Amino acid sequence: MNKWIYSKTGQVHQERHEKCQDAVLFQENEWVYAAAVSDGASGCRYGREGAKTACKAAISYLTEEDVIGDHFSNEKLAWLFNEYLLYRLEQTALKQGNPVDEYASTVAAVCLNRPERKAAAISLGDSAVLRIRNQNVETFLGARRTGGQPCLLTDAKAHDEMQVRYFDLCAEDTIVLCTDGFLDAYTENSRLRSALKNLDFQKMNAILDTCSSADDVSYIAISGS
């Protein structure tokens, strides 16, 4: 199993002298690999803290619960996952004495059962999950917006909007979790699309380093080999 992680602060936050509002996290144990990416809502005062909390909560849930073994329906897993992440956000907000809505974020996460190579992917809002197989880039769980805005973890309808997909991870597969900033750059830059298709992450990161991006850009890629 190989992994690649990238994150950079977009121009908007640089001009405001603010840090990147994205968070990326990976963890493994004897049985499970888990990865998560989260994009803190820029309009929220503690979006960056919310993204960090969401990633930590996602990893905690995916490594401590038998997500693959239980194999809940998509709807039930979406509800359980969202409730756990929202609870962790509420606890953070309560501890810091702030409204939980100020910690809003999107999320995309994946867990892999190592012995069986069975996996589950979950996403909410305009973060997404991609799969690359034999130079074909497939949108596993696509970015979603309603009225131009993504659904966030603190929204009342979050569990209804959350996407879930179970799948087998083949040796030739690479899974990419990414924020909307990465998706925008990927859509606009043909060299970036070519690098991703060919799994040339060193080249892809160099392109991202030099290309202009208003939004924060983050991804984590995990190979099946």
Task: List the keywords.
225 residues; alpha+beta; Phosphatase 2c, domain 1; 5-stranded antiparallel sheet; 8 helices; 10 strands; globular
List the helices and strands and how they pair.
Layout: E1 3-8, H1 11-15, E2 22-28, E3 32-39, H2 47-64, H3 67-70, H4 74-96, E4 107-113, E5 118-124, E6 128-133, E7 136-141, H5 158-161, E8 163-168, E9 173-178, H6 180-188, H7 190-197, H8 201-210, E10 217-223
Antiparallel strand pairs: 1-10, 2-3, 3-4, 4-5, 5-8, 6-7, 6-9, 9-10
Helix pairs in contact: 2-4, 7-8
Question: Any overview of this molecule?
Answer:
By secondary structure, this protein is α+β, with helices and mostly antiparallel strands. The chain has one domain (3-223): Phosphatase 2c, domain 1, CATH 3.60.40.10. It is built from 8 helices and 10 strands. The strands form 2 sheets. The protein has a 5-stranded antiparallel beta sheet. Strands 2-3-4-5-8 form a 5-stranded antiparallel beta sheet. A hairpin with a 2-residue loop joins strand 6 (128-133) and strand 7 (136-141). Helix 2 crosses helix 4 and helix 7 packs antiparallel against helix 8 (201-210).
